[in-house]
Amino acid sequence: MNTGRRWPVSFRPQRGEILYSWLARTAGVDGLYPEELLPEKRRFHAISLLVYEASSDILRSLATSTGISRKALAKRTLAVAHPAWLSSWWIADASQGATRATLPLPALPICPLCLADDAHTDNGIQFLRLGGLCCAVTICRKHLIPLQPACVPCHRSGWPICSRTDFRRFGLVCRHCGCQQDDDGWSFYDACEDAVRLLARFEHQLFRALAHQAVEWCWVGYATPQEFLRLVEDLLWAVTRHSIIPSPSTSSRLLHSLSALAHFPMPLSDIGASPRPAFVAVCWLLF
User: Fold this and answer.
1) Which of 109, 77, 79, 73 lies closest to 94 in space, CA to CA?
2) What is the phi-psi region of residue 187: left when phi exceeds 0, alpha when psi lies from -120 to 50, beta otherwise?
3) Bridge partners of residue 223, in order along the sequence
4) Neighbouring C-beta atoms of residue 141, cutoff 10 Å
5) Quick one: the chain helix, strand, coil %, rounded to 5?
6) On the CB side of 88, how many CA atoms lie within 13 Å of its CA?
7) What pLDDT score does 131 carry?
8) Distance from CA of residue 191 to its chain's centroid?
9) Which residues contact 69 (CB under 8 A, 6 or more apart)?
10) Which of 57, 51, 79, 89 minimizes the C-alpha distance to 70?
11) In 10 A of CB 123, how many CB atoms?
């Protein structure tokens, strides 16, 4: 469809919207997939290009067709919107030598209640958020429910497309089964509410650390973003080292060190690296 001419219909991007989502909404008016609006030679790995870092020729083509500036469109990609994020915290890791254009892109986790809220606004515009592109986010902070990485009705993963949902509305639907991705009846067990709230608080601090903002956590105290990220990386390393079984004496000694640290009112920045083995040992004790 991309002919270099101005499209008859194009929409204004929403705040925090992914470039892919904006293009999907435009394509949905004509019953198309978003990649079909790109130049033909750029349709391969189109979703990655519309999420991570769109090339200058794609931005130029979209700007010509919609009248929206290239700068405004580039801000809807991960590389421009969140340049401080480490690539190892993207939903697909670019640190292993793969280019962003060829990254295997997992399904974007979405909140069904956020999409339901979108549908009930005055304009009824549903869109996908840039915040979901970060691995640090698994809980919706607004609704306190886990984000869904796959279509709830058919359980197949994939990036949703935009389609007409009633006479005057368009919404996000599954690529595979066509079901709408919003669900205002989604609920969570009350027994898990405290755990979800705690996880949401932790993810918020991790999100701040990735943005190079100060962090304060209940059992760590004040920490620099680098210290907090180092701690989380140690914990992740520990829970994935299933083959390592520490001796009981070593675990007890390190756990004792951690217990003493938890009751010692000293900032993490003043203690140095000594707590790190203790945190790792605690993770080992969980398995």
Assistant:
1) 79
2) beta
3) 215
4) 14
5) 45, 10, 50
6) 8
7) 84
8) 26
9) 63
10) 57
11) 11
CA–CA gap between residue 121 and residue 171 (Å, rounded) = 12
Average pLDDT over the chain, rounded to an integer = 76
Closest CA to 53 of 82, 77, 37: 77
Of 79, 16, 32, 26, residue with least CA distance to 51: 79
pLDDT number for residue 5: 75
167-192 burial code (b ≥16 CB/10 A, e <16): eeebbbbbbeeeebbbbeebeeeeee
A 10 A CB-CB count for 99 gives 11
Which residues lie across from 146 on neighbouring strands? 139
pTM for the structure as a whole: 0.75
Pairwise CA distance, residues 241 & 237, whole Å: 6
Report the residue count for the chain: 287
Q: Which residue type, as a one-letter code, is found at position 117?
A: D
pLDDT band with cut points at 50, 70 and 90 for residue 210:
confident
Tell me the two tokens of residue 150: 């796959």
Task: Confirm if 45 and 15 have CB atoms less than 8 A apart.
Answer: no
Distance CA 75, CA 183 (A): 29
Q: Say whether 161 sits in a helix, a strand or coil.
A: strand
The pLDDT-based confidence of 97 (bands split at 50, 70, 90) is very low
> Cα dist. 120→72, 132, 162, 169, 251 in Å?
26, 21, 16, 11, 53
59-85 per-position pLDDT tens digit: 998 999 999 999 999 999 988 888 877
Place of tokens 């999907």: 24
Per-residue model confidence (pLDDT) at position 286 = 46
Q: Are strands 170-173 and 161-164 parallel, antiparallel or unpaired?
A: antiparallel
Q: Where are the beta strands (DSSP E) in the chain?
A: 161-164, 170-173, 215-217, 221-223
